[in-house]
Amino acid sequence: MPARVSEAIILRTYPFREADLVVSFLARDQGKLRGVARRARRPKGGFGAGLERLSYVRLFYFQRENRELVDLDSVELIRSQFGLVSDYAAGVVLDYFAEVSEQLLPPGEPNERHFRLLLAVLDFIGAAGTEARAGALWAAVLYFSLWAVRLAGFLPELRTGREANSIAEEMLRTPISQLSGREWTKATAAELRRFLVRQLEEHIERKLLSVPLLEAL
Q1: Of 25, 78, 19, nearest to 49 (Cα)?
Q2: What distances in angstroms separate CA 212 from CA 111, 164, 217, one per listed residue?
Q3: Quick one: 22 and 102 in the same domain?
Q4: How far apart are CA 25 and CA 74, in angstroms?
Q5: Same domain, 94 and 31
Q6: What is the pLDDT of residues 184-207, one digit of tens each?
């Protein structure tokens, strides 16, 4: 049982047995994996807040050959999303990032670009002040959606309106950290957002649960 250490982003957890959790996570070096965190649901389980959604962590685990689930040993929290917990809109956006990643990425296939994409949008939202957060959320949603479908290899030619194409072209040229000066609102980005969501849904077996909440913001 080789011991491994990986930087990872927690995508989702599922209750398992009486006190355990099944954890879906995106490792920088190994792609999307699932593992069992034993006694994680107990107050003194040892994992603490390191298994919260979209936490950026360093995971210590054991991986056996020909076995789907790895055994999680411990977790070291690098950065959490605690500062966004009280913001409902930010919570919906984080759910969207996690759900798209969970459904879109194949298991066990390294994808450092998607890993860095998640870190970039999380850093961007976290750096936005309270007053600028609404615009930052929609900028991050559009940036993430465009690059998620592009990195997955099924983004066709964009057949949208002039403004949506302009936004897409700017996003392809410019790092997200430099986009804060643009006025990103739900109204101006609606056409491109709907198009990208349709592209995601067409390549995922079930519709994304977070999309109706996202559209209702």
Answers
A1: 78
A2: 28, 21, 9
A3: no
A4: 14
A5: no
A6: 555 556 666 677 777 777 777 667
Can you state the percent helix, strand and coil of the chain, rounding each to 5? Answer: 45, 20, 30
Q: How many separate domains does the chain show? A: 2
Instruction: Please check the confidence at residue 115 and state whether its pLDDT lies above 90.
Output: yes
Angle between helices 88-104 and 112-127 (to 10 degrees): 180
Full domain range(s) for residue 13: 3-79
Examine the fold and report which residue of 31, 60, 79 is the final residue of a domain before the chain moves on: 79
Nearest to 172 by CA among 145, 191, 194: 145
Which of 178, 195, 105, 194 minimizes the C-alpha distance to 148?
Answer: 105
Token duo for residue 90: 């930010």
For tokens 């034993």, the residue is: 38
Q: Is the pTM of this model over 0.85?
A: no
